[in-house]
Amino acid sequence: MVTQDAGALVLFSGGQDSTTCLAWALERFGRVETIGFNYGQRHIVELECRKEVLSRLRQRFPRWSSKLGNDQVVDLGLLKDISDTALTRDVEISMGTNGLPTTFVPGRNLLFLTVSAAVAYRRGIKTLVGGMCETDFSGYPDCRDDTMKALQVVLNLGMEKRFVIETPLMWIDKAETWRLAERLGGEILIDLIKEHTHTCYKGDRSQRHDWGRGCGTCPACELRANGYKRYIAGPAIAAVA
Ligand code: ZN
Q: Ligand 1: distance of its center to the CA of 217 in Å?
């Protein structure tokens, strides 16, 4: 089903969430481009995974292959220079004194969306798609629905455009994200996500679990593993009134 001709630009990191968002966009738009960011992540493995995921999506899904266009990785190394977080430095992953996890990179999503909008402007794309999510997340303020809606207004005012920011995962949990992937691309997509997407904060790909590769103990691995367990167990049965 194609609902937009002006295309979509997907913020694609090579993780489970953004891969599901990419499949979501490929089902809806006639042209889909991808953008990734190199911001001095401690573990560059994410950027390697995204190439592999793109190549396998093209191989395994002929109906998406012709729509999947330009991919670019933008260097935002300045984030590493100006921030001090567990994702960019060797800092322990924990809860900071300000109530935010040390994995929070201030301004990251704001910068990603702004750069994406600038790229979309140049490429004539109307819709930006991101995997931001308020549900069972670590409380990142820049993943909130209100932040995204406010940013959409700012980008449209500041660039004199009518961008739409789509966040298909905003109100679903990790089990539902697996279910969404299954609805979009069946077992083939589930297997591809398990094997080739990367979530682990520690960059570990040496250990293989039923939900994919990762250390199995960092917050990102735990979230992914718990979601997968609940996905495999099947949807919760609605309580009888
Ligand atoms: Zn991990």
A: 5
Report how far ligand 1's centroid is from the alpha carbon of 55 (Å).
24
Q: Has residue 239 been placed in a domain?
A: no
Residues, CB-to-ion distance under 5 Å, ligand 1: 200, 202, 214-215, 218, 221
Question: Does residue 238 belong to any structural domain of this protein?
Answer: no
Amino acid letter, residue 61:
F
**Axis-axis angle for helices 45-60, 174-196 (nearest 10):** 90
Q: Is residue 31 part of a domain?
A: yes
Domain housing 17? 8-232
Does residue 241 sit within a domain?
no
pTM of this prediction exceeds 0.70: yes
Q: Helix 16-28 to helix 45-60 angle, to the nearest 10 degrees?
A: 30
Q: What is the Å distance from ligand 1's center to 208 Cα?
A: 11
Domain count, the chain: 1
Tens of pLDDT, residues 181-237: 999 999 999 999 999 999 898 889 999 999 999 999 988 899 999 999 999 998 765
CA of 228 to the centre of ligand 1 (A): 14
- The whole-angstrom distance between residue 34's C-alpha and the CA centroid of its chain comes to 11
